[in-house]
Design brief:
Largest sheet: 6 strands, mixed
CATH superfamily: 2-enoyl-CoA Hydratase, Chain A, domain 1
CATH class: Alpha Beta
Number of domains: 1
Oligomer: single chain
Strand order of the largest sheet: 1-2-3-4-6-8
Radius of gyration: 19 Å
CATH architecture: Alpha-Beta Complex
CATH topology: 2-enoyl-CoA Hydratase, Chain A, domain 1
Length: 279
Amino acid sequence: MAKDLLLREHRDGVTTLTMNNPDRLNGWTVSMLEALGAALREADRDEETKVIVLTGTGRYYCAGVNLGGTLKLDHPASLYRFVLEHNEELFDQFLRLRTPILIAANGPAIGASVTSATLCDGIVASENATFSTPFAALRVPAEGCSSETFPKLLGEEAAHRMLGPEGWKPTAAEAAEIGLVQWVVPPEELMSKAHSIAQQWIEEGHTRTYPAGFTRAELEAINARESKVLAKAFLSPPFLMAQYEFLWGKGKRQTALLFLGLAKTHRAWKHLLPPEART
């Protein structure tokens, strides 16, 4: 595990894992995801850990999956499998946890860091946190089971506002109103509140729970379905062009041109994709 990316503290039966790459807004690069996965597995195996708390350093909780740091030029079929397998594994690692897990959102959360948080036992948010799921703007379908959990968890209207074209980004207070988060506190009180909630869970014998009445098996099936749709979308011209425009605007010209090249040559390499990803 890259220990500099993931800090670990254990106290009173609570293991706190802190994503520690504030210069990259704790974005989920390959190395950060590997560190996070290893830390979650280690904490889940630890008999002394009764509750896991996940938080971040700096201004952001997590800026979501860093596509520039994860996708690399490869054979189209390999890229399809990479996206499918890595997306499914990202959320399954949260679903597989036997230990209750509390998210302490210290700042803005984007994309997969939001949807994965809703698969945990609870979310306590700093007042300066926001929650963004800009899938429509990126021309990709919803992930992290959100296509089915959000409508039940938040209500149809709020789910559509977040997942649809509006791309609503609720504040912590607004997120509490719609049921996305359960507690909101001033920034300086976040970690003490998280520890207090974890301690209460331990005293009450709280066991692992899942959102909106779903079972783990149901969520794993939803995740598998969504991952196939997402992998197909990731290799479609609308998504590739959206990524090109986004990355070019951020000054990441080399990565942007990779996406542009894939979009412009899509017809030439589409036949190399698995049959289910060609239509």
